[in-house]
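note to self — DONT lose this again. spent like an hour looking for the file last time. sequence + predicted structure for the chain T wanted, 495 res
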Amino acid sequence: MSQAIAAIDFPDLCMSFADLGLSDELLKAVTDAGYSEPTPIQASAIPSVLMMRDLIGIAQTGTGKTAAFVLPMIDILAHGRSRARMPRSLILEPTRELAAQVAENFEKYGAGHKLSMALLIGGVSMGDQIKALEKGVDVLIATPGRLMDLFSRGNILLTGCSMLVIDEADRMLDMGFIPDIEEICTKLPKQRQTLLFSATMPPPIKKLADKFLDNPKTIEVARPASTNVNIKQWLVPVSGTAFKKRSALRQLLRQDDVTTAIIFCNRKTTVRELNKSLKKHGFRSGEIHGDMEQPQRLAELDLFKKGDINILVASDVAARGLDIKGVSHVFNFDAPWHPDDYVHRIGRTGRGGATGVAYTLMTADDAENIDNIEKLTGQKIDRLTIEDAPEPAEEARPARRERHGRGGERSAPRREERTDGRGEERGDRGGRRDRRDAGNLPDAARAERTHQDRAGSSDRRPRRDSYDDGPDVGWNGPIPEFLSVSLNVDDPVDD
């Protein structure tokens, strides 16, 4: 294959969907979905895909890149018939949630084309997936692990696949899927159309494109690793104590016009503790992290989407892929360890042309991480001192604090600071030490600590991976209508 990569193409922003060469049936589906004008990545990519060119699309999250390949694929696949165990097209996604969201797009826009589809992901019965493949599918959407598993079992043949999409290539790289993708590419016909999409273009992805794409057209709608211009970013310096960080966060939540917000933490334990603290102070918050079972995560997301809660405290399990409309604010309670994660975190707001606000709480220990973020994005983030906007005098207090408020607001910082100062490592022995230490506190503070220890006892659970959130291997995305089978959390995880 050619090693050449075509020059970057910048889209014409004056186009409409009717100008892109899509069929009338597809245009109607797009209009019915409420869209009239394509995004820049869609305006540039769709005509090239329809002309059967290989394509590299470099676009940040929230730019509409999924529709950029789903729409033309529907029209291309409208002609032809599927055969048993031989999918006509293959879309590779790094996670289950992203695969499900792509499937939803096919279901929404392809309703009038009667295309068959299969979703190969972990956590779903393999038997049902094999049955779908036996019937023949036009579109196969898969995570690399499950695809390789079924291929090795002889349940799928890739020799009839004329179209390949590698989505979120940079995430594939982060998760160690590049060797699997290279092997999958060797199983496909050499004469095929290949589309590769990525938020960034690091050298390993460039090497992959050079090897498996034939003279591709490259489309870049934003500089790699840049942040959305519609997102106003702030750095908020705070002291290093956990209580000070929580206090600053509460102040920002109260003083800003926060309708819906996602708050990111680096550790699962921090997610749990912060959510508990926010609820205690009267906020409608929930949590999502990698230790939660799939039904729990789906339930929390559903509450957030319905508005029953308006704050979602999350680990990086939710940083990519979640397409939740109307998120007004993103808060980085912890500055991310990796600068790429910053771009993806704040990309949960300011989507679809809307404006958003992103705050990052910064301690002295975060200086190097912040410096790396600013180097990656090529921009200096404005600083905001918490004194610039004083906290409102009236604060919401839950009924429990009113009943047990002898210690007042003054005792709370002592409890919270001590808990988080060593709570990551204390275990059972540390818990006994905390109870001993409470004997040295003033009566009011001791009463407050006794109450909070009692209240938190029912919440305790085994803590695994306390120090690192680790990779996301669970389901935390929407379930498309066609996926009528139940999730089986005992299945081996492959993505």
